[in-house]
Write a structure and sequence with these properties.
The protein folds into 3 domains: 167 residues, NAD(P)-binding Rossmann-like Domain (Rossmann fold, 3-Layer(aba) Sandwich); 162 residues, Dihydrodipicolinate Reductase, domain 2, CATH 3.30.360.10; 83 residues, 2-Layer Sandwich (Alpha-Beta Plaits), CATH 3.30.70.260. Helices cover 36% and strands 26% of the residues. It has 14 helices and 17 strands. The strands form 2 sheets. Strands 7, 8, 9, 10, 11, 12, 13, 14, 15, 16 and 17 form an 11-stranded mixed β-sheet that branches. Strands 3-2-1-4-5-6 form a 6-stranded parallel β-sheet, sandwiched between helices. A hairpin with a 3-residue loop joins β11 and β12.
Length: 437
């Protein structure tokens, strides 16, 4: 049987890693796929640029349209990033009857509904394992391995840059800006780190995971997103003292009123497994009604970890090239006509616990006023610390609450801010116990 020919769009870090993995493990991959797989075509902005892979035998071009329309190519692998050109190329490939593999989380989160609909009509596959958590096979695990479960919730550290920053702040007593600068020097963060540190990258990935877990359309625009740039070294220290770690977490949970879809800094009990995932590593915790809690851990980025997922998708496509399209695993785990219209909850309706840090005058009655406001808004206190500053007659009050609805907390914080004895804004970080209860 002739080898399947693959056209690669992009020969950067992941593209080069994909070529290397396919070439190095060609025999083993062929045994698993049932036939050979070769990169026959590849496009790059500059075909003369030095590469991390060998390109002998690959037809190189600076015109990606030529790759997606070439009749020899059966599978198009999109690794150029961005959404505008990538969307155009992927839809063009589908229109030409080609299967698609992509590592582009923004593309899937924003345009996946359109892309999957086009693919279904043409009877081709779109595989996107590498779009979430690099080399961790989390999409396959939820879509196929846990298909017998009613998924109750999932929570993930799905951006390595943010996790590296928070880990360094905790372990080396450094502030956010200092660690961010180091992350940029090490290549973990871009010159413009907004997508990573403000949670946009994680929200793209969470949108995809939630759709697969709960059988809902992709709805990135409804994801609540909050970054880590306002987390201070003091917050990290206080969290540690109270038995928690701060992680930049993506959380999606099924509730009676809808689906939670939120990315934000989160306190997690240190005894929880995911709280101990450090550095640039990723992890996703999934709770199913039958299996209970399962944790998926590994490298969330990098040339070969991501290439591992890309190649696995290529092998999956090759295995089903001759399969009736109606009998393939659905893109979003559920049959397209069975996707649910369950709403995404507004952040005001989310129920969670909170960490509050309040700078206030060290006067009689201050703490009583604050706790009274919380009680009036149906917010009960789980634990509390008070740190006196001494000479300036100021104190820092740290409060851990029990679960409450976010709109109750918003109301309470407005009243607390209005107190003359409170200095500046109250720091609020959400808290999740996950499997540590």
């Amino acid at each position: 049987m002739k080898p399947v020919k693959v056209g690669l769009l992009g020969l950067g870090t992941v593209g080069g890693g994909t070529v290397n993995v396919l070439q190095r493990n060609a025999e083993e991959i062929s045994r698993r796929a049932g036939r050979g797989i070769v990169i026959s075509h590849a496009s790059a902005r500059d075909i003369n640029k030095p590469r991390i892979c060998k390109t002998d035998g690959i037809k190189l071009t600076e015109n990606p349209i030529g790759v997606v329309t070439d009749p020899e190519v059966s599978i198009v692998v999109e690794l150029i990033g961005g959404v505008t050109l990538a969307r155009e190329l992927v839809l063009k490939a589908i229109a030409n009857g080609k299967h698609v593999v992509t590592a582009n989380k923004a593309l899937i989160a924003k345009h996946g509904n359109e892309i999957f609909s086009a693919a279904q009509k043409k009877g081709v596959m779109v595989a996107f394992e590498a779009a979430v958590a690099g080399g961790i096979p989390i999409i396959k695990a939820i879509r196929e391995g846990l298909t017998g479960n009613n998924i109750e919730w999932l929570a993930g550290i799905i951006n390595g840059t943010g996790n590296f920053i928070l880990t360094e702040m905790r372990d080396k007593q450094r502030d956010f800006n200092s660690v961010l600068a180091e992350a940029q020097r090490l290549g973990y963060a871009e010159a413009d780190p907004t997508f990573d540190v403000e949670g946009i990258d994680a929200a793209h990935k969470l949108t995809i995971l939630a759709s697969i877990a709960f059988g809902i359309p992709l709805q990135f625009e409804k994801a609540y997103t909050e970054g880590i740039s306002k987390i201070t070294r003091e917050d990290v220290d206080y969290a540690t003292e109270l038995g928690f770690s701060i992680k930049h977490l993506g959380v999606s949970r099924r509730t009676k009123n809808g689906i939670e879809l939120r990315v934000h800094p989160t306190l997690i009990p240190k005894r929880c497994l995911i709280a101990n995932v450090d550095g640039v590593m990723n992890a996703v915790l999934v709770e199913g009604d039958a299996v209970g809690s399962t944790l998926y851990y590994g490298a969330g980025a990098g040339a070969e970890p991501t290439a591992s997922a890309v190649v696995a998708d290529i092998v999956d496509v090759v295995r089903v090239l001759t399969t009736d399209p109606e009998n393939r695993v659905p893109h979003l785990a559920f049959q397209p006509e069975s996707l649910s219209d369950t709403p995404i909850l507004a952040i005001d309706e989310v129920e969670t616990a909170y960490y509050l840090r309040i700078a206030a005058s060290d006067e009689t009655g201050v703490l009583a006023n604050i706790t009274s406001i919380l009680a009036e808004n149906n917010i009960s206190i789980d634990s509390m610390l008070q740190k006196e500053h001494g000479s300036d007659n100021k104190s820092t009050i740290i409060i851990i609450t029990h679960t409450t609805i976010e709109k109750n907390m918003n109301t309470a914080l407005q009243k607390i801010h209005a107190l003359d004895v409170v200095d500046g804004d109250v720091t609020r970080i959400r808290l999740e116990h996950l499997d540590a209860d």
